[in-house]
Amino acid sequence: MSKTHLGHTARKRFGQNFLHDDYVIEQIVNAINPQTGENLVEIGPGLGALTDPVCERVEALTVVELDRDLAKRLRQHPFHGDKLNIIEQDALTLDFTTVKDNLPDPDKPLRVFGNLPYNISTPLMFHLFDYAHSISDMHFMLQKEVVTRLAAGPGTKNYGRLSVMAQYYCTVMPVLSVPPGAFKPPPKVDSAVVRLIPHATPPVEVDSVHTLERVCAQAFNQRRKTIRNSLKDCIEVSAFETLGLNPGARAETLSLQDFASIANYVVQHGDPRCGT
């Protein structure tokens, strides 16, 4: 299992921290449980800490790597190079449906995993949510605080836009915590692995996901304000009573269903100020 760091310096601009703890790696790979014949996609394979043990269990793996030097190393891998389909691109700009359609069995959904660069983890997850219909599950190493936010419920300080939107698209399951010492160089924060399973059918009915995102963003952008004030450009105060909501409430107390009700009201009443 090759996890050598020789010849490659972690690049700060790519947010690179390389996983090297064998026990943690085994736990992560066991959580993913990769099987031959699945459409497996790894984002940010780096020096192969997860790539190598996954390739030992399967016959083919697609990897998405932005760093040219690391992509070159993977192409020249002495043991697993012939198993790898290497996409040298920024995952934030990648069309994952096209990735699936170009694999040998495009009828199977993608299984996506990776030790994500923490500086792009949130926008990357929002990007992947757009392709949830093409994905069966995702396993990501993230900053522990982000995993806590993904799984947070209403009324907690970690609950926010990311919680609402992640839970609209997926079931969120924290898997394990990972200490800084499992990486080189060690990050300044604790990490955790999360499993995200896209819903076959969303848990709430939403007329426009775009409007749901805009309403959540506006409500949580000024989270200390009441929704009467933070959403005043979207919805008149009287509408909250119609929806059975207290206009004096703060965003962090509203459920996914509450945000869906507000977004649907905005769509149906056509207020352009909220980006419908």
UniProtKB/TrEMBL annotation:
Signal peptide: none annotated. GO terms for molecular function: 16S rRNA (adenine(1518)-N(6)/adenine(1519)-N(6))-dimethyltransferase activity; RNA binding. It comes from the Bacteria. The keyword Chaperone does not apply. One of its GO terms (cellular component) is cytosol. It is an enzyme of class 2 (transferase). Its main location: cytoplasm. InterPro entries: KsgA/Erm (IPR001737), rRNA_Ade_diMease-like_C (IPR023165), rRNA_Ade_Mease_Trfase_CS (IPR020596), rRNA_Ade_methylase_Trfase_N (IPR020598), rRNA_adenine_dimethylase (IPR011530), SAM-dependent_MTases_sf (IPR029063). Residues 24-200 form the Ribosomal RNA adenine methylase transferase N-terminal domain. Keywords: Cytoplasm, Methyltransferase, RNA-binding, rRNA processing, S-adenosyl-L-methionine, Transferase. Pfam families: RrnaAD. S-adenosyl-L-methionine binds at residues 17, 19, 44, 65, 90, 115. It is found in: Cytoplasm. It catalyses: adenosine(1518)/adenosine(1519) in 16S rRNA + 4 S-adenosyl-L-methionine = N(6)-dimethyladenosine(1518)/N(6)-dimethyladenosine(1519) in 16S rRNA + 4 S-adenosyl-L-homocysteine + 4 H(+). SMART domains: rADc (SM00650). Its EC number is 2.1.1.182. Belongs to the class I-like SAM-binding methyltransferase superfamily. rRNA adenine N(6)-methyltransferase family. RsmA subfamily. HAMAP family: 16SrRNA_methyltr_A. Specifically dimethylates two adjacent adenosines (A1518 and A1519) in the loop of a conserved hairpin near the 3'-end of 16S rRNA in the 30S particle. May play a critical role in biogenesis of 30S subunits. This is Ribosomal RNA small subunit methyltransferase A.
